[in-house]
Amino acid sequence: MAVTLGPGKCRVIAGQWHDPYTGRVFTDPGDLDIDHLVPLKEAHDSGAAPWPQPRKRAYANDLSHPEALIAVYDGANRAKGAHDPASWLPSTAVYRCAYVRAWTQVKDHWGLTMDRAEAKTVTAILENCQQQRESEKRGRIMNREKSLPGGGS
Fold this sequence. Notes:
By secondary structure, this protein is α+β, with helices and mostly antiparallel strands. Helix content is 48%, strand content 12%. The longest helix is centred in the C-terminal third of the chain and has 32 residues, at 116-147.
């Protein structure tokens, strides 16, 4: 479904959006918020506090990373609040690896730091994601070998 803009083309009035946090699909833009993947308060606490106003504005409106600002279910965004991955993760388990990778990319891009709990959680999740990818890769290789003539015997 294409996005429909209202008069003046400044307001979205219809469309279809997939919320990666919940896995749900929405057609009413009123059910959505635009989420800062790394919340503004988290950025402030992680090194953005002394930034000059133009840099803060650039961060708040960052479109350089495809997931820096994303449309998500408003209830999920409000539950997330200003939390980092140590205290909040998307309910959709399949999105967690992508969420944490994007989190670290945004933080790296802007030179933001991580506190101990956040870094520990991010490291554990990324290690688990890597193990999952390696396990899936081994499974695909084994399945390919079984499908070869004389394979699997």
